[in-house]
Amino acid sequence: MTKSRKTFIIILSTILIMLLALLFLFPLIWMIASSMKSESSIYNDLGGIKAFLPGLNPAQWGSAYQKLLGRFNILRFILNSVLYALAVTLGSVLVNSAAGYAFSKFDFRGKKILFGLLIASMVVPGDTIMIQKFQIVKILHLINSPWAVIFPAVAGAFNIYMFKNFFDQVSDSIVESAELDGASAFTIYWRVLLPMAKPVIATVGTLSFIGSWNDYIWPLMVLTDADKFPLQIAITNINNTQPVYMNQVMAILTISTVPLVLIYMFFQKYLVQGLAVAGNGDK
Amino acid sequence: MSRLGKRQNQAWFFLAPAIIVLGLFLFIPSIISFCYSFTDFNMLAPKLAAFVGIANYLKLFKDPIFMKSLKNIVQFVAFVLPIQVGTALGLALIVNKKRPFNMFYKVAFFAPVVVSLAVTSILWMYILNPSQGILNSLLAKVGISAQPFLNSSKQAMFAIIFLSAWQACGNQMIIFLAGLQNIPKSLYEAADLDGAGKWATFRNITLPLLKPTTVLILTTTFIDAFKMMTQAMIMTQGGPLNSTMTPLYYIYRTGFTDRQLGYASAMSVVYGFGIILFTIVQRKVTRADEGSGQ
Protein backbone atom coordinates (compact mmCIF):
# COMPACT_ATOMS: atom_id res chain seq x y z
CA MET A 1 0.00 0.00 0.00
CA THR A 2 2.70 2.49 0.98
CA LYS A 3 4.48 2.03 -2.31
CA SER A 4 1.43 2.65 -4.43
CA ARG A 5 0.55 5.58 -2.20
CA LYS A 6 3.99 7.04 -2.75
CA THR A 7 3.63 6.69 -6.51
CA PHE A 8 0.25 8.36 -6.30
CA ILE A 9 1.68 11.31 -4.35
CA ILE A 10 4.52 11.69 -6.82
CA ILE A 11 2.14 11.70 -9.78
CA LEU A 12 -0.24 14.13 -8.10
CA SER A 13 2.51 16.55 -7.07
CA THR A 14 4.05 16.36 -10.54
CA ILE A 15 0.72 17.31 -12.10
CA LEU A 16 0.18 20.20 -9.67
CA ILE A 17 3.67 21.60 -10.03
CA MET A 18 3.52 21.20 -13.80
CA LEU A 19 0.31 23.25 -13.82
CA LEU A 20 1.98 25.91 -11.68
CA ALA A 21 4.96 25.99 -14.05
CA LEU A 22 2.61 26.41 -17.02
CA LEU A 23 0.82 29.21 -15.16
CA PHE A 24 4.15 31.03 -15.00
CA LEU A 25 4.99 30.29 -18.60
CA PHE A 26 1.65 30.88 -20.32
CA PRO A 27 2.13 34.62 -21.00
CA LEU A 28 5.51 33.96 -22.62
CA ILE A 29 4.33 30.92 -24.60
CA TRP A 30 1.38 32.98 -25.83
CA MET A 31 3.71 35.83 -26.76
CA ILE A 32 6.00 33.62 -28.83
CA ALA A 33 3.14 31.59 -30.37
CA SER A 34 1.25 34.75 -31.34
CA SER A 35 4.33 36.15 -33.05
CA MET A 36 4.34 33.04 -35.26
CA LYS A 37 0.86 33.21 -36.75
CA SER A 38 -1.35 35.52 -38.75
CA GLU A 39 -3.23 38.38 -37.10
CA SER A 40 -6.64 36.77 -37.68
CA SER A 41 -5.63 33.39 -36.26
CA ILE A 42 -4.47 35.06 -33.02
CA TYR A 43 -8.06 36.18 -32.43
CA ASN A 44 -9.58 32.96 -33.72
CA ASP A 45 -7.38 30.83 -31.46
CA LEU A 46 -7.93 32.84 -28.26
CA GLY A 47 -10.32 30.47 -26.54
CA GLY A 48 -8.43 27.21 -26.82
CA ILE A 49 -5.17 25.38 -26.59
CA LYS A 50 -4.33 26.58 -30.10
CA ALA A 51 -3.66 30.01 -28.62
CA PHE A 52 -0.40 28.60 -27.29
CA LEU A 53 0.72 26.97 -30.50
CA PRO A 54 2.23 28.70 -33.53
CA GLY A 55 0.32 28.75 -36.81
CA LEU A 56 -0.29 25.53 -38.71
CA ASN A 57 1.84 26.46 -41.69
CA PRO A 58 5.56 26.60 -40.74
CA ALA A 59 6.25 28.73 -43.82
CA GLN A 60 4.27 31.54 -42.13
CA TRP A 61 6.10 31.47 -38.81
CA GLY A 62 8.54 34.18 -39.80
CA SER A 63 6.11 36.37 -41.68
CA ALA A 64 5.26 38.74 -38.82
CA TYR A 65 9.00 39.17 -38.17
CA GLN A 66 9.62 39.90 -41.84
CA LYS A 67 6.86 42.51 -42.03
CA LEU A 68 8.08 44.07 -38.79
CA LEU A 69 11.62 44.37 -40.15
CA GLY A 70 10.18 45.93 -43.29
CA ARG A 71 8.17 48.55 -41.41
CA PHE A 72 10.70 49.57 -38.77
CA ASN A 73 14.44 49.82 -38.60
CA ILE A 74 14.65 47.07 -35.98
CA LEU A 75 18.32 46.31 -36.58
CA ARG A 76 19.12 49.94 -35.78
CA PHE A 77 17.28 49.70 -32.44
CA ILE A 78 19.00 46.42 -31.60
CA LEU A 79 22.36 47.94 -32.45
CA ASN A 80 21.60 50.99 -30.29
CA SER A 81 20.63 48.83 -27.34
CA VAL A 82 23.72 46.65 -27.70
CA LEU A 83 26.01 49.68 -27.98
CA TYR A 84 24.48 51.44 -24.95
CA ALA A 85 24.61 48.28 -22.88
CA LEU A 86 28.20 47.44 -23.86
CA ALA A 87 29.38 51.01 -23.22
CA VAL A 88 27.68 51.07 -19.82
CA THR A 89 29.14 47.66 -18.96
CA LEU A 90 32.69 48.59 -19.95
CA GLY A 91 32.43 52.03 -18.33
CA SER A 92 31.03 50.76 -15.09
CA VAL A 93 33.68 48.05 -14.74
CA LEU A 94 36.48 50.59 -15.30
CA VAL A 95 35.09 53.52 -13.30
CA ASN A 96 33.92 51.49 -10.31
CA SER A 97 37.00 49.28 -10.12
CA ALA A 98 39.30 52.31 -10.25
CA ALA A 99 37.38 53.97 -7.41
CA GLY A 100 37.35 50.73 -5.45
CA TYR A 101 41.13 50.49 -5.92
CA ALA A 102 41.61 54.04 -4.63
CA PHE A 103 39.51 53.38 -1.53
CA SER A 104 41.23 50.06 -0.85
CA LYS A 105 44.94 50.65 -1.51
CA PHE A 106 45.50 54.37 -0.97
CA ASP A 107 45.52 56.50 2.10
CA PHE A 108 44.57 59.99 1.03
CA ARG A 109 43.23 63.01 2.83
CA GLY A 110 39.46 63.04 3.11
CA LYS A 111 39.17 59.31 2.42
CA LYS A 112 37.00 58.61 5.43
CA ILE A 113 34.57 61.44 4.67
CA LEU A 114 34.38 60.50 1.01
CA PHE A 115 33.77 56.85 1.78
CA GLY A 116 31.12 57.76 4.34
CA LEU A 117 29.43 59.91 1.73
CA LEU A 118 29.55 57.03 -0.71
CA ILE A 119 27.94 54.61 1.73
CA ALA A 120 25.32 57.20 2.65
CA SER A 121 24.51 57.76 -1.01
CA MET A 122 23.39 54.14 -1.28
CA VAL A 123 20.16 55.01 0.48
CA VAL A 124 19.36 57.89 -1.89
CA PRO A 125 16.68 56.64 -4.27
CA GLY A 126 18.02 57.83 -7.62
CA ASP A 127 14.62 57.51 -9.27
CA THR A 128 13.16 60.33 -7.20
CA ILE A 129 15.60 62.86 -8.68
CA MET A 130 15.30 61.92 -12.33
CA ILE A 131 13.90 65.25 -13.42
CA GLN A 132 16.70 67.13 -11.66
CA LYS A 133 19.20 64.78 -13.33
CA PHE A 134 17.54 65.68 -16.61
CA GLN A 135 18.11 69.35 -15.80
CA ILE A 136 21.86 68.65 -15.42
CA VAL A 137 21.90 66.85 -18.77
CA LYS A 138 20.23 69.90 -20.29
CA ILE A 139 22.78 72.28 -18.77
CA LEU A 140 25.59 70.08 -20.14
CA HIS A 141 23.97 70.20 -23.61
CA LEU A 142 23.80 66.41 -23.70
CA ILE A 143 20.11 66.12 -24.61
CA ASN A 144 19.68 63.62 -27.44
CA SER A 145 23.28 62.49 -27.08
CA PRO A 146 24.07 58.79 -26.48
CA TRP A 147 26.35 60.03 -23.69
CA ALA A 148 23.30 61.13 -21.73
CA VAL A 149 22.22 57.49 -21.63
CA ILE A 150 25.67 56.05 -20.91
CA PHE A 151 27.35 58.58 -18.61
CA PRO A 152 25.05 58.56 -15.55
CA ALA A 153 25.03 54.76 -15.48
CA VAL A 154 28.77 54.11 -15.23
CA ALA A 155 29.28 54.87 -11.51
CA GLY A 156 27.40 53.30 -8.67
CA ALA A 157 28.12 53.29 -4.95
CA PHE A 158 27.23 49.62 -4.58
CA ASN A 159 29.57 48.57 -7.41
CA ILE A 160 32.44 50.63 -6.00
CA TYR A 161 31.82 48.99 -2.65
CA MET A 162 31.97 45.52 -4.21
CA PHE A 163 35.32 46.26 -5.88
CA LYS A 164 36.72 47.81 -2.70
CA ASN A 165 35.73 44.73 -0.72
CA PHE A 166 37.46 42.48 -3.20
CA PHE A 167 40.66 44.54 -3.31
CA ASP A 168 40.70 44.66 0.51
CA GLN A 169 41.11 40.91 0.49
CA VAL A 170 44.16 41.08 -1.78
CA SER A 171 47.19 41.12 0.48
CA ASP A 172 49.15 44.37 0.55
CA SER A 173 52.36 42.34 0.19
CA ILE A 174 51.41 41.56 -3.41
CA VAL A 175 51.03 45.27 -4.08
CA GLU A 176 54.27 46.06 -2.28
CA SER A 177 56.34 43.52 -4.14
CA ALA A 178 55.01 44.84 -7.44
CA GLU A 179 56.00 48.29 -6.30
CA LEU A 180 59.51 47.13 -5.46
CA ASP A 181 59.72 45.83 -9.01
CA GLY A 182 59.13 49.40 -10.12
CA ALA A 183 55.48 49.10 -11.10
CA SER A 184 53.50 52.34 -11.15
CA ALA A 185 50.16 52.71 -9.36
CA PHE A 186 48.43 52.34 -12.71
CA THR A 187 50.36 49.18 -13.64
CA ILE A 188 49.44 47.64 -10.28
CA TYR A 189 45.78 48.43 -10.95
CA TRP A 190 45.78 47.35 -14.57
CA ARG A 191 48.15 44.36 -14.58
CA VAL A 192 47.93 43.01 -11.05
CA LEU A 193 44.64 43.79 -9.34
CA LEU A 194 42.13 44.03 -12.19
CA PRO A 195 43.00 40.59 -13.64
CA MET A 196 42.47 39.11 -10.18
CA ALA A 197 39.02 40.68 -9.87
CA LYS A 198 37.36 38.63 -12.60
CA PRO A 199 34.44 37.40 -10.45
CA VAL A 200 33.54 40.96 -9.40
CA ILE A 201 33.99 42.20 -12.96
CA ALA A 202 31.58 39.51 -14.14
CA THR A 203 29.01 40.42 -11.48
CA VAL A 204 29.22 44.19 -11.97
CA GLY A 205 29.36 43.78 -15.73
CA THR A 206 26.32 41.52 -15.93
CA LEU A 207 24.24 43.69 -13.60
CA SER A 208 25.21 46.79 -15.61
CA PHE A 209 24.39 45.16 -18.92
CA ILE A 210 20.95 44.01 -17.80
CA GLY A 211 20.20 47.34 -16.12
CA SER A 212 21.10 49.25 -19.26
CA TRP A 213 19.29 46.88 -21.61
CA ASN A 214 16.06 47.12 -19.59
CA ASP A 215 16.21 50.84 -18.90
CA TYR A 216 13.13 52.58 -20.24
CA ILE A 217 12.28 55.87 -18.58
CA TRP A 218 15.69 57.56 -18.58
CA PRO A 219 16.46 57.05 -22.30
CA LEU A 220 12.89 58.14 -23.03
CA MET A 221 13.58 61.40 -21.23
CA VAL A 222 16.97 62.29 -22.73
CA LEU A 223 16.68 61.00 -26.32
CA THR A 224 14.53 62.74 -28.93
CA ASP A 225 15.63 61.21 -32.26
CA ALA A 226 13.96 57.92 -33.08
CA ASP A 227 17.12 56.58 -34.67
CA LYS A 228 18.90 56.80 -31.31
CA PHE A 229 16.22 54.92 -29.39
CA PRO A 230 17.08 51.67 -27.66
CA LEU A 231 14.78 48.67 -28.13
CA GLN A 232 12.72 49.24 -24.99
CA ILE A 233 11.50 52.60 -26.29
CA ALA A 234 11.14 51.30 -29.83
CA ILE A 235 8.79 48.63 -28.48
CA THR A 236 6.39 51.15 -27.00
CA ASN A 237 6.60 53.24 -30.17
CA ILE A 238 5.79 50.26 -32.36
CA ASN A 239 2.91 49.45 -30.03
CA ASN A 240 1.58 52.99 -30.59
CA THR A 241 2.21 53.32 -34.34
CA GLN A 242 -0.91 52.73 -36.43
CA PRO A 243 -1.73 50.25 -37.81
CA VAL A 244 -0.94 48.09 -34.80
CA TYR A 245 -0.66 44.39 -35.61
CA MET A 246 -0.64 42.16 -32.58
CA ASN A 247 1.58 39.52 -34.17
CA GLN A 248 4.20 42.16 -35.00
CA VAL A 249 4.07 43.56 -31.47
CA MET A 250 4.56 40.05 -30.08
CA ALA A 251 7.46 39.61 -32.51
CA ILE A 252 9.27 42.71 -31.27
CA LEU A 253 8.62 41.71 -27.64
CA THR A 254 10.17 38.32 -28.38
CA ILE A 255 13.14 39.82 -30.21
CA SER A 256 13.94 42.18 -27.35
CA THR A 257 13.84 39.33 -24.82
CA VAL A 258 16.19 36.91 -26.59
CA PRO A 259 19.49 38.63 -25.67
CA LEU A 260 18.57 38.60 -22.00
CA VAL A 261 17.79 34.90 -22.14
CA LEU A 262 21.36 34.36 -23.32
CA ILE A 263 22.84 36.68 -20.69
CA TYR A 264 20.97 34.94 -17.88
CA MET A 265 21.92 31.53 -19.23
CA PHE A 266 25.64 32.26 -19.22
CA PHE A 267 26.03 34.71 -16.32
CA GLN A 268 23.42 33.61 -13.79
CA LYS A 269 26.01 32.40 -11.30
CA TYR A 270 27.62 35.84 -11.09
CA LEU A 271 24.28 37.49 -10.41
CA VAL A 272 23.70 35.23 -7.41
CA GLN A 273 27.21 36.10 -6.20
CA GLY A 274 26.43 39.80 -6.43
CA LEU A 275 23.33 39.35 -4.34
CA ALA A 276 25.30 37.38 -1.77
CA VAL A 277 27.71 40.31 -1.44
CA ALA A 278 24.77 42.66 -1.08
CA GLY A 279 23.53 40.50 1.75
CA ASN A 280 26.80 40.30 3.64
CA GLY A 281 28.00 43.82 3.19
CA ASP A 282 26.17 47.11 3.20
CA LYS A 283 24.93 46.93 6.80
CA MET B 1 48.99 50.19 4.95
CA SER B 2 50.62 49.68 1.63
CA ARG B 3 53.48 51.79 0.39
CA LEU B 4 51.09 53.18 -2.16
CA GLY B 5 49.71 55.12 0.74
CA LYS B 6 52.60 57.51 0.46
CA ARG B 7 51.55 58.49 -3.00
CA GLN B 8 48.19 59.66 -1.87
CA ASN B 9 47.64 62.20 -4.61
CA GLN B 10 47.54 59.47 -7.21
CA ALA B 11 44.36 58.19 -5.58
CA TRP B 12 42.46 61.14 -7.02
CA PHE B 13 43.35 60.01 -10.53
CA PHE B 14 41.51 56.74 -9.91
CA LEU B 15 38.66 58.37 -8.05
CA ALA B 16 38.04 61.22 -10.47
CA PRO B 17 35.74 59.45 -12.96
CA ALA B 18 33.47 58.09 -10.23
CA ILE B 19 33.42 61.39 -8.35
CA ILE B 20 32.54 63.33 -11.50
CA VAL B 21 29.71 60.97 -12.48
CA LEU B 22 28.24 60.59 -8.99
CA GLY B 23 28.69 64.30 -8.39
CA LEU B 24 26.92 65.34 -11.58
CA PHE B 25 24.13 62.80 -11.56
CA LEU B 26 23.52 62.06 -7.89
CA PHE B 27 24.82 64.73 -5.51
CA ILE B 28 24.11 67.87 -7.53
CA PRO B 29 20.59 66.72 -8.52
CA SER B 30 19.88 65.97 -4.85
CA ILE B 31 21.02 69.44 -3.86
CA ILE B 32 19.16 71.25 -6.61
CA SER B 33 16.00 69.36 -5.64
CA PHE B 34 16.15 71.29 -2.40
CA CYS B 35 16.88 74.60 -4.08
CA TYR B 36 14.18 74.24 -6.74
CA SER B 37 11.63 73.10 -4.18
CA PHE B 38 11.46 76.61 -2.71
CA THR B 39 10.84 78.21 -6.11
CA ASP B 40 8.12 78.20 -8.76
CA PHE B 41 10.69 77.10 -11.36
CA ASN B 42 9.09 76.23 -14.68
CA MET B 43 11.22 74.64 -17.39
CA LEU B 44 9.55 76.75 -20.06
CA ALA B 45 10.46 80.00 -18.32
CA PRO B 46 13.51 79.33 -16.16
CA LYS B 47 14.43 83.02 -15.96
CA LEU B 48 11.13 83.89 -14.25
CA ALA B 49 11.71 81.49 -11.34
CA ALA B 50 11.00 83.18 -8.03
CA PHE B 51 11.49 82.19 -4.41
CA VAL B 52 8.18 81.04 -2.96
CA GLY B 53 9.26 79.76 0.45
CA ILE B 54 7.47 76.64 1.60
CA ALA B 55 4.44 77.21 -0.63
CA ASN B 56 5.18 74.08 -2.67
CA TYR B 57 5.32 71.96 0.47
CA LEU B 58 2.02 73.34 1.72
CA LYS B 59 0.51 72.73 -1.69
CA LEU B 60 1.52 69.11 -2.02
CA PHE B 61 -0.16 68.01 1.18
CA LYS B 62 -3.39 69.45 -0.20
CA ASP B 63 -2.85 67.99 -3.66
CA PRO B 64 -5.45 65.21 -3.99
CA ILE B 65 -3.48 63.40 -6.72
CA PHE B 66 -0.27 63.34 -4.69
CA MET B 67 -2.12 62.08 -1.62
CA LYS B 68 -3.90 59.50 -3.76
CA SER B 69 -0.56 58.36 -5.21
CA LEU B 70 0.78 57.83 -1.68
CA LYS B 71 -2.27 55.75 -0.83
CA ASN B 72 -1.83 53.76 -4.04
CA ILE B 73 1.83 52.97 -3.43
CA VAL B 74 1.08 51.83 0.13
CA GLN B 75 -1.56 49.52 -1.32
CA PHE B 76 0.90 48.26 -3.93
CA VAL B 77 3.65 47.58 -1.37
CA ALA B 78 1.27 46.00 1.14
CA PHE B 79 0.11 43.44 -1.42
CA VAL B 80 3.12 42.89 -3.63
CA LEU B 81 5.50 42.23 -0.75
CA PRO B 82 3.74 39.20 0.81
CA ILE B 83 2.56 37.85 -2.56
CA GLN B 84 5.94 38.12 -4.25
CA VAL B 85 8.12 36.98 -1.35
CA GLY B 86 5.69 34.26 -0.26
CA THR B 87 5.48 32.86 -3.78
CA ALA B 88 9.25 33.02 -4.13
CA LEU B 89 9.72 31.00 -0.93
CA GLY B 90 7.15 28.44 -2.05
CA LEU B 91 8.80 28.06 -5.45
CA ALA B 92 12.24 27.72 -3.85
CA LEU B 93 10.95 24.95 -1.59
CA ILE B 94 9.47 23.18 -4.61
CA VAL B 95 12.61 23.24 -6.73
CA ASN B 96 14.93 22.56 -3.77
CA LYS B 97 13.65 18.98 -3.58
CA LYS B 98 14.86 16.44 -6.09
CA ARG B 99 11.92 15.76 -8.39
CA PRO B 100 11.35 14.66 -11.95
CA PHE B 101 11.41 17.68 -14.35
CA ASN B 102 13.12 19.83 -11.70
CA MET B 103 15.21 21.73 -14.22
CA PHE B 104 12.10 22.55 -16.24
CA TYR B 105 10.35 23.96 -13.15
CA LYS B 106 13.32 26.12 -12.31
CA VAL B 107 13.47 27.54 -15.83
CA ALA B 108 9.70 28.09 -15.90
CA PHE B 109 9.59 29.96 -12.58
CA PHE B 110 12.60 32.06 -13.49
CA ALA B 111 11.60 32.84 -17.08
CA PRO B 112 9.54 36.00 -16.33
CA VAL B 113 12.57 37.64 -14.67
CA VAL B 114 14.27 37.71 -18.04
CA VAL B 115 11.48 39.86 -19.47
CA SER B 116 12.01 43.61 -19.06
CA LEU B 117 9.41 45.80 -17.37
CA ALA B 118 8.54 47.52 -20.64
CA VAL B 119 7.96 44.17 -22.35
CA THR B 120 6.05 42.83 -19.34
CA SER B 121 3.79 45.87 -19.35
CA ILE B 122 2.93 45.69 -23.04
CA LEU B 123 2.51 41.91 -23.05
CA TRP B 124 0.07 42.06 -20.13
CA MET B 125 -1.89 44.89 -21.73
CA TYR B 126 -2.76 42.41 -24.48
CA ILE B 127 -3.35 39.54 -22.06
CA LEU B 128 -5.67 41.69 -19.95
CA ASN B 129 -7.50 43.34 -22.82
CA PRO B 130 -11.16 43.15 -21.71
CA SER B 131 -12.70 42.26 -25.07
CA GLN B 132 -9.89 40.52 -27.00
CA GLY B 133 -7.50 39.41 -24.27
CA ILE B 134 -6.47 35.84 -23.71
CA LEU B 135 -7.18 35.94 -19.98
CA ASN B 136 -10.86 36.73 -20.40
CA SER B 137 -11.11 34.05 -23.10
CA LEU B 138 -9.61 31.52 -20.70
CA LEU B 139 -11.83 32.70 -17.84
CA ALA B 140 -14.86 32.27 -20.07
CA LYS B 141 -13.88 28.59 -20.45
CA VAL B 142 -14.26 28.06 -16.71
CA GLY B 143 -17.46 30.08 -16.57
CA ILE B 144 -16.15 33.38 -15.22
CA SER B 145 -17.58 36.46 -16.91
CA ALA B 146 -15.31 38.96 -18.65
CA GLN B 147 -13.45 41.28 -16.30
CA PRO B 148 -12.52 44.91 -17.06
CA PHE B 149 -9.03 44.57 -15.45
CA LEU B 150 -7.04 47.70 -16.36
CA ASN B 151 -10.18 49.62 -17.32
CA SER B 152 -11.53 49.41 -13.81
CA SER B 153 -10.36 51.68 -11.01
CA LYS B 154 -10.99 48.81 -8.61
CA GLN B 155 -9.02 46.14 -10.50
CA ALA B 156 -6.22 48.01 -12.26
CA MET B 157 -3.88 48.22 -9.27
CA PHE B 158 -4.43 44.58 -8.39
CA ALA B 159 -3.65 43.59 -11.97
CA ILE B 160 -0.38 45.53 -11.73
CA ILE B 161 0.38 43.95 -8.35
CA PHE B 162 -0.02 40.45 -9.76
CA LEU B 163 1.95 40.95 -12.94
CA SER B 164 4.73 42.70 -11.00
CA ALA B 165 4.95 39.73 -8.62
CA TRP B 166 4.86 37.35 -11.59
CA GLN B 167 7.72 39.17 -13.25
CA ALA B 168 10.01 39.46 -10.22
CA CYS B 169 9.48 36.51 -7.89
CA GLY B 170 11.80 34.17 -9.81
CA ASN B 171 14.69 36.38 -8.79
CA GLN B 172 13.88 36.00 -5.11
CA MET B 173 13.32 32.29 -5.62
CA ILE B 174 16.97 31.98 -6.69
CA ILE B 175 18.16 33.79 -3.55
CA PHE B 176 15.93 31.66 -1.32
CA LEU B 177 17.28 28.59 -3.08
CA ALA B 178 20.86 29.64 -2.36
CA GLY B 179 19.86 30.13 1.28
CA LEU B 180 18.20 26.72 1.43
CA GLN B 181 21.24 25.02 0.00
CA ASN B 182 23.45 26.62 2.63
CA ILE B 183 21.59 24.81 5.39
CA PRO B 184 23.78 21.85 6.41
CA LYS B 185 22.33 18.49 5.37
CA SER B 186 23.41 16.99 8.70
CA LEU B 187 20.76 19.04 10.51
CA TYR B 188 18.03 17.42 8.45
CA GLU B 189 19.53 13.98 9.00
CA ALA B 190 19.61 14.56 12.74
CA ALA B 191 15.99 15.73 12.72
CA ASP B 192 15.07 12.64 10.74
CA LEU B 193 16.80 10.39 13.30
CA ASP B 194 14.89 12.14 16.08
CA GLY B 195 11.71 11.27 14.23
CA ALA B 196 10.73 14.88 13.56
CA GLY B 197 7.91 15.30 11.05
CA LYS B 198 8.12 17.38 7.90
CA TRP B 199 6.32 20.38 9.36
CA ALA B 200 8.37 20.32 12.56
CA THR B 201 11.59 20.14 10.54
CA PHE B 202 10.44 23.06 8.38
CA ARG B 203 9.47 25.20 11.39
CA ASN B 204 12.45 24.40 13.58
CA ILE B 205 15.27 24.10 11.07
CA THR B 206 14.44 25.55 7.66
CA LEU B 207 12.63 28.72 8.71
CA PRO B 208 15.06 29.91 11.44
CA LEU B 209 18.13 29.21 9.31
CA LEU B 210 16.53 30.95 6.35
CA LYS B 211 15.91 34.09 8.36
CA PRO B 212 18.92 36.15 7.18
CA THR B 213 17.98 35.40 3.56
CA THR B 214 14.36 36.31 4.23
CA VAL B 215 15.32 39.59 5.87
CA LEU B 216 17.56 40.48 2.93
CA ILE B 217 14.80 39.70 0.43
CA LEU B 218 12.10 41.51 2.38
CA THR B 219 14.14 44.69 2.78
CA THR B 220 15.28 44.95 -0.83
CA THR B 221 11.83 44.10 -2.22
CA PHE B 222 10.17 46.56 0.17
CA ILE B 223 12.31 49.51 -0.90
CA ASP B 224 12.14 48.59 -4.59
CA ALA B 225 8.36 48.38 -4.49
CA PHE B 226 8.11 52.05 -3.49
CA LYS B 227 9.75 52.95 -6.79
CA MET B 228 7.11 51.35 -9.00
CA MET B 229 6.45 53.53 -12.03
CA THR B 230 7.12 51.88 -15.42
CA GLN B 231 4.11 49.55 -15.28
CA ALA B 232 1.73 52.38 -14.39
CA MET B 233 3.26 54.66 -16.99
CA ILE B 234 2.94 52.21 -19.89
CA MET B 235 -0.21 50.30 -18.98
CA THR B 236 -2.60 52.81 -17.44
CA GLN B 237 -0.94 56.25 -17.43
CA GLY B 238 -1.90 56.31 -13.77
CA GLY B 239 -5.60 55.76 -14.47
CA PRO B 240 -8.43 55.02 -14.39
CA LEU B 241 -9.31 57.87 -12.04
CA ASN B 242 -5.70 58.00 -10.77
CA SER B 243 -6.16 54.57 -9.22
CA THR B 244 -2.69 53.49 -10.38
CA MET B 245 -0.93 56.85 -10.06
CA THR B 246 2.30 56.31 -8.11
CA PRO B 247 4.40 59.04 -6.46
CA LEU B 248 7.37 58.59 -8.80
CA TYR B 249 5.13 58.71 -11.86
CA TYR B 250 3.36 61.81 -10.56
CA ILE B 251 6.71 63.50 -9.92
CA TYR B 252 7.71 62.64 -13.49
CA ARG B 253 4.44 63.94 -14.89
CA THR B 254 4.56 67.19 -12.93
CA GLY B 255 8.25 67.88 -13.40
CA PHE B 256 8.87 66.52 -16.87
CA THR B 257 5.60 66.48 -18.80
CA ASP B 258 4.09 69.60 -17.18
CA ARG B 259 7.52 71.23 -16.66
CA GLN B 260 6.75 72.41 -13.12
CA LEU B 261 10.17 71.59 -11.77
CA GLY B 262 9.74 73.65 -8.59
CA TYR B 263 6.65 71.86 -7.40
CA ALA B 264 7.91 68.45 -8.56
CA SER B 265 11.14 69.02 -6.64
CA ALA B 266 9.20 69.52 -3.42
CA MET B 267 7.59 66.14 -4.03
CA SER B 268 11.02 64.60 -4.82
CA VAL B 269 12.34 65.91 -1.51
CA VAL B 270 9.39 64.69 0.56
CA TYR B 271 9.13 61.28 -1.09
CA GLY B 272 12.91 60.81 -1.34
CA PHE B 273 13.29 61.53 2.37
CA GLY B 274 10.44 59.17 3.10
CA ILE B 275 12.27 56.33 1.34
CA ILE B 276 15.58 57.22 3.01
CA LEU B 277 13.90 57.20 6.41
CA PHE B 278 12.31 53.82 5.72
CA THR B 279 15.66 52.40 4.61
CA ILE B 280 17.49 53.63 7.72
CA VAL B 281 14.80 52.50 10.17
CA GLN B 282 14.65 49.13 8.47
CA ARG B 283 18.40 48.63 8.66
CA LYS B 284 18.39 49.59 12.35
CA VAL B 285 15.58 47.15 13.06
CA THR B 286 17.12 44.24 11.16
CA ARG B 287 20.51 44.87 12.77
CA ALA B 288 19.02 44.97 16.28
CA ASP B 289 17.07 41.85 15.41
CA GLU B 290 20.18 40.02 14.27
CA GLY B 291 21.99 41.03 17.45
CA SER B 292 19.28 39.60 19.70
CA GLY B 293 18.92 36.50 17.57
CA GLN B 294 22.44 35.27 18.31
Category from helices, strands and their pairing of chain B: mainly alpha
CATH class of chain B: Mainly Alpha
- Low-pLDDT stretches of chain B: 1-5
Dominant shape of chain B: globular
Give a structural overview.
The complex is a heterodimer of chains A (283) and B (294). By secondary structure, chain A is an all-alpha fold. Chain A is built from 14 helices and no strands. Chain A has helices at residues 2-35, 39-45, 63-71, 74-105, 111-121, 130-139, 146-150, 157-169, 172-180, 185-196, 198-214, 217-222, 231-240, 246-280. Residues 279-283 of chain A have low confidence and may be disordered. Chain B is mainly alpha-helical and 294 residues long. Chain B has a single domain (55-293), classed as MetI-like (MetI-like fold, Orthogonal Bundle). The radius of gyration of chain B is 24 Å and the shape is globular. At the A-B interface, helix 1, helix 4, helix 5, helix 6 and helix 9 of A face helix 1, helix 4, helix 5, helix 6 and helix 7 of B.
Structure keywords:
heterodimer, A: about 280 residues, mainly alpha, MetI-like fold, about 0% strand, globular, B: about 290 residues, about 70% helix, disordered N terminus
